[in-house]
Amino acid sequence: MKEIKIGLIGFGTIGTGVAKLLQANAGLIADKVGAMVTLKKIADLDVTTDRGIELPPGTLTSNVADVLDDPEISVVIELIGGYEPAKSFVLRAINNGKHVVTANKALLALHGEEIYPAAAAKGVQVLFEAAVGGGIPVISAILGNMAANNFTTVLGILNGTCNYILTRMTQEGADFGDVLKTAQELGYAEADPTFDIEGVDTAHKLALLVSLCFGTKVDFNAIHTEGISSISSADIGFARDFGYKIKLLAIGKRTGDTVEARVHPTMIPVNYPLADVDGVFNAIRFTGDFIGPVMFYGRGAGMDPTASAVVGDVIEIARNIIAGVSRRCAPLGYRDEAVTTLALKPMGEIEGKYYLRFSAVDKPGVLAKISGALGKYDISIESMIQKGRSAGESVPIVIMTHEAREKDIRAALEEIDTFELISEKSRFIRIEDNLE
Ligand code: HSE
């Protein structure tokens, strides 16, 4: 049987999962590919830690050139994450004529424009299923069976760490810091967990999904990115009172040549399937012009699911190699000249419903002042609650609005925050309750 040799850079959590999977399911993979897929070399700076896996002698090396420059290796898996040296390694692998599989969403979201043309010039594939949604095969679906569609929406819960934290805060009233620590111990979090918590990891993934779905380059820095560190148990409680859950959502929408790409905590109705996506699970919901709405659900982080996505990409490449095909599809699924550069819609122009929370002194007339300011900016109130009664003290007042423009919401809140009766900065959370 023919043998396809691969090399792995990065022997951390996911790398270990990949090595284990390739060993455990070697026979199955050979039956599916029609060739043995063999892990020839693994490069990592740490060659001493016991990862609980036995490797043939000589597999592990601290010299990355043993992977990148070995002419027998036809596929390089990059799992070190981050920008450098990952970018240099990926480009060197490509220049050496090797196909690349990576889980590195940060690298592709910021430097895809350098990597994709390099791969095109060499006629090699760059596959990155594991970069979005852990083990969930969304990218294969966009590039493959959903390719006939014009997408209008892609919306998802894309960060297992944040979803795990929000779920435990919602279900148990757990403390943010304690839950984050557990997520790190379980191997869900990024090396720098602020990337998870502040929404950056989700934005990296959204950038890739928007490019894949809408065929446009995305200026990563133009994606509005907010994380979950400002979400309080009070907001979670009020959301529940109004029939919503708070999730960190990645939202991509296309209307004509207008594209929205934003990441922020979002209230969604409890009866939406997305509201039931809990713990480390991710879900991605697409709307295509022919397929309609379709949702993918599965484990979005962790060693085994992510390894499954990485090895799935290796199998795709191995099958092409066996068929004598070097590359059937560009990384974004469009021919290069067809990829456009559409500007992202400014956040001020976004329209939707909003949850507003004010801390106001409990005094006659305070509501009239707040609602007057909202009216001035054309913001109509759908419902309202005031919790507690404490004359002369601060109490929370929560207002749900009808459709409003974000710049009006911001302007109204800025004005309201100047009122003497307002004791804390007012907060807002966007609501998504009108999915096609
Ligand atoms: N840190 C990421 C998460 C891992 O929590 O979802 C998968 O990209």
UniProtKB/TrEMBL annotation:
Entry binding sites for NADP(+): I9, G10, F11, G12, T13, I14, G15, T16
Protein's name according to its UniProt entry: Homoserine dehydrogenase
Family (UniProt): Belongs to the homoserine dehydrogenase family.
Record-annotated active site: K205
UniProt gene name: hom
Source species of the chain: Geobacter sulfurreducens (strain ATCC 51573 / DSM 12127 / PCA)
Domain (ACT): residue spans on this chain: 355-430
Keywords of the record: Amino-acid biosynthesis, Methionine biosynthesis, NADP, Oxidoreductase, Threonine biosynthesis
rRNA processing is among the record's keywords: no
UniProt binding sites for NADPH: K105
Matching SUPFAM superfamilies: ACT-like, Glyceraldehyde-3-phosphate dehydrogenase-like, C-terminal domain, NAD(P)-binding Rossmann-fold domains
